[in-house]
């Protein structure tokens, strides 16, 4: 019985990360095939994914409240759950900022960002698929390093994107809009790294 309960948490983590992967792919598709007339509709579709992620998180919290024994510390389960949920939230926030700032064309650097975010989410899913075996895993450490490297790639892209924005664009409203959007794109990469950091912390505490 305990083994089945333990698996539940790890499976839930994987399912919630999968929501982030779906959101990242949807964001990339929306920006690559940008259509202002469908932006509100696309935002609703992305929100459904975010809502599904929230639902999975709340389901796990309900199980956790009643659990007598957990595979890792309760506070670590809560931290991981919240950190994973933040990934999907941040991805949704990017499209929200594009919508409220009334953006009509997508800058190429934003598309580059979405590709980095997709890669981050892909590695994050690999981490979570391996996480149940964290005490014996030979691959988790390398995957965490890979997430850190991708976050650094996101940081460099953020700097380069902001530089191009301020050297190529003269419209102050466009600059303000894209500064905010770039900030939220970077936060997506940061959110993925935060999950990896939480996983690393659990490993350090339990091995």
Automatic annotation (TrEMBL):
Transmembrane segments: none annotated. InterPro entries: PhoU-like_sf (IPR038078), Put_Phosphate_transp_reg (IPR018445), UPF0111_domain (IPR052912). Belongs to the UPF0111 family. This is DUF47 domain-containing protein. It comes from Enterocloster lavalensis.
